[in-house]
Amino acid sequence: MTTSNKTPPGADPKQLERTGTVREIGSQAVWSLSSCKPGFGVDQLRDDNLETYWQSDGSQPHLVNIQFRRKTTVKTLCIYADYKSDESYTPSKISVRVGNNFHNLQEIRQLELVEPSGWIHVPLTDTHKKPIRTFMIQIAVLANHQNGRDTHMRQIKVYTPVEESSIGKFPRCTTIDFMMYRSIR
Question: According to the lineage, what is the superkingdom (predicted)?
Fold first, then answer.
């Protein structure tokens, strides 16, 4: 069992993006859930609003499935959880699995969360500390605080490393103004 990496609790993952070393790729994936209450599904999980959330509606484990159309390099998974707001709905044990499809998923991380409040940064690396390449990520909520049945997750972000330019070395664009123009569309 592992805990999340050394990023300070509550650190905003957008700070990672501003460094120019990673970018969020969740919009390139197909998202599905094991269950959800009406109005508390994938749209709320991905809307960049920390006040909305996914709420499961069924028996555990509660699953978030993230499937990519092609094999994708993934460096970090960021999950926002808030024990103060969600109490018994807050996950206390999470499993992160990767694979090509539902039939060959392998667990690469298991996290114990103790009253989390903020962003949880989960590095997705292989045994050589390299980012993983996968078609699918599955987040399984195995247990909640206070033995809660359903779960709340407020946001999930998926990050890939930014590759160096093949044209040559350029300085990283780290300000918001520069980042708007850092790639050719």
Answer: Eukaryota
Cα 29 from Cα 51, distance rounded (Å):
23
Alpha-carbon gap, residue 148 to 57, rounded angstroms: 12
For residue 185, what are the CA distances in angstroms to 158, 170, 180, 181, 182? 22, 18, 11, 9, 10
When divided into structural domains, the chain yields a total of: 1
Is residue 26 a part of any domain in this protein?
Answer: yes
| Residues paired with 134 in a beta bridge | 72
Q: Is residue 175 part of a domain?
A: yes
> Has residue 73 been placed in a domain?
yes
pLDDT tens across 151-162, in order?
A: 999 999 999 998
Query: What digits encode the pLDDT tens for the residues 74-119?
Result: 999 999 999 999 999 999 999 999 999 999 999 999 999 999 999 9
**Residue 59: other Cβ atoms inside 10 A:** 10
